[in-house]
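ingest -> validate -> predict -> emit
validate: passed (alphabet ok, no gaps, 507 aa)
predict: started
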Amino acid sequence: MMGMTLSELLLKANIAPTELQGDAAINSIVMDSRKALAGSLFVCMPGMTRESESFIPDAVDAGATAALVHSPAGLVSARSYGLAAALVSPKGNSFPDFVWRLCDAFFDHPTRSMKVVGVTGTNGKTTTAWLVRDMLNALGEKSAYLGTLGFYLPDQTIELGNTTPFAVELYNYLAMARASGVTALAMEVSSHALAEQRADGVEFDTAVFSNLTQDHLDFHGTMEAYEAAKWRLFRELPKQTQKAFSAVINIDDACGERWHQRLGEIGTPVHLYSRMGKEGAWAFESKSLKVSFDSITGKWLNVGSAPIGKVDAKLGGSYNVENLLSAMTAMVALGYEPKDVVKAASSVHPVPGRFEAVQNHKGIGVIVDYAHTPDALEKLLDAVRPLTKGKVITVFGCGGDRDRTKRPKMARAASERSDLVIVTSDNPRTEDPKKILRDILPGLIPKTDSLAIVDREEAIREAIKRAKTGDVVVIAGKGHEDYQIIGRTKHHMDDRELARTALENKK
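emit:
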């Protein structure tokens, strides 16, 4: 929208600021002063670590011509530097609501012209969204993925700071996707993003709900608030689109069952999936389902009807059955023929850091996975146990500056399902890693064979040292991440690399 003035943009977005002073042409919207260019509108987001309005001089030096501020002092500062400025109160949802409407108008509704699948839930978001992208590609779409693993366009990959970026960044990415010719997008939508209205205005064709278990209570406070944030994707965001919206729900989950009823009451079309094979849901025929470390095969059907066809997916682990079902059901919700969905599901690729096997010639299974909640760890280890001839050795930790109440629950989940548990560090951030371990250890079942090793590299080395032929070492918590956050600094550390080195040095 080159050359549009701030006042023209406000008119197009049909929004009115608390106060508007001056006017200027804007060519881009940024929330990071370091990314400002000539003609940028600098959005001063409230609630950041450092007062965002203090970066106005930096944005001006980079060429910004306008600012969106959240305080009278910010308005004065912006005007003193010659910027056109709009003031919006930070109270309630006023500011984030203003921002997404502004961005959606500036970029001319970037998701209106593409198929968009949103995925939310405590566990399974990344894998499901990744599989959705793979299937969309197989079905002839030029597809993109946005989430925990980054922003994957057909011709480039961009690292993200958040699973779901803030609205200003998100809309810049969405516009980039459209400019790249993307016709379909699979997007993870986190509870943080939904609570903070980061994804508002995105025109979803369908949204997938995987499950709800304890996580992020440090942010939401209660499970009720956590659920309410996710519910926005199905209740509030569909009101912001011109598209016909439908929902994909895991009917095996207690929250999913509640939502199915609520969605029916408000008239939202719902497509169900069920690992348990519940009536009316998409599922795999139980007698034909076979799962290994690197594959899932089985006949797919809508329960109560004849099988559509046999899926042969190069994806391992029993908990990935649910993820595969959720992605396939999303394809049905988008209107693809079930027989074509079967073919597409057979072409998916493994997801980095999700039940990822580290190949070796030692006869030892090594699985690296992102599982970092009690429920995810339980499902991971429950998937590993039936495939293991020997012992299960689990290495895990808990992140610093995050929900402390889940730490002993993680320990219990691991000790109930492992022959040896090694508790270690996992992004301690600003907390003392030894203190984190002290929070974890009381959750271990008495007499559990366990070790506490603060250094993660040493912990992985010890796990593989103790493993014998037929054993499986599960390294949980970080998955695809190639860093360890100590303090506020990221240090290079990749569980897969550490495991390979330990295997090479194993005698």
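The radius of gyration is 24 Å.
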